Amino acid sequence: MKRIVLFPGSFNPVHIGHLAVANYVTAYTEVDELWFVVSPCNPHKEPQELALFEHRCAMVRIAVLQTRLPMSVCELEGSLPAPSYTINTLETLSEMYSDVEWSLLMGADNLANFHRWKNHEKIVALCRLLVYPRLGAETILRHGAKLIEAPVMEISSTLVRQAIAQGVNLEAFLPAGVWNYIKRESLYLTDCPQNQP
User: Which of 146, 153, 151, 152 is nearest to 30 (CA)?
Assistant: First the structure.
């Protein structure tokens, strides 16, 4: 049975912190693949903050292709009803791939609020939880979660977006190629309507 880790997020944009965690998981846990699950519209975030789903998927594809690691991009949520709930994604993937053992990767801050997720009991029944530490978030393992001792890298997509809007170059915070994509598509400029869904 194939073992796949799902790494959900907005990836708005994907940055080297995301890749570092993903790389650690593929290197130090018994998994075959890791899938970045790009969310079209996170129910906990304001949609106007998001670049178009297609842009965010494209940036993750650029980042993944350059790693040569067992990672790929899952764009399934783009075809599911909004908002993007993890349980809907997991149920759909479980129907599509009956021979896969699923794991769900999340930060310690998300685990602390996991009881508020839609049908969180069903999520635990469909997959195991892998948790990575986050600065300032207490890691209390619940729901059978396993702690991944990945390095704590406090790089946020919010910081990257704010820097771009202010004309600050944070190229080193992004995977090679992603910075060029952002510049070419003029993403994350202040109040830029073409970035919005």
Answer: 146
The boundaries of the domain holding residue 183 are 2-195
Per-residue pLDDT tens digits of the chain, which is 197 residues long? 999 999 999 999 999 999 999 999 999 999 999 999 999 986 555 556 799 999 999 999 999 998 989 999 999 999 998 888 999 999 999 999 999 999 999 998 888 889 899 999 999 999 999 999 886 656 667 788 999 988 888 889 999 999 999 999 999 999 989 999 999 999 998 644 444 43
* Domains of the chain: total: 1
- Nearest to 62, CA basis, from 39, 38, 78: 38
pTM of the full structure: 0.91
First to last CA, the chain: 37
20: three-class secondary structure by DSSP? helix
Q: Which is it for strands 2-9 and 100-107: parallel, antiparallel or unpaired?
A: parallel
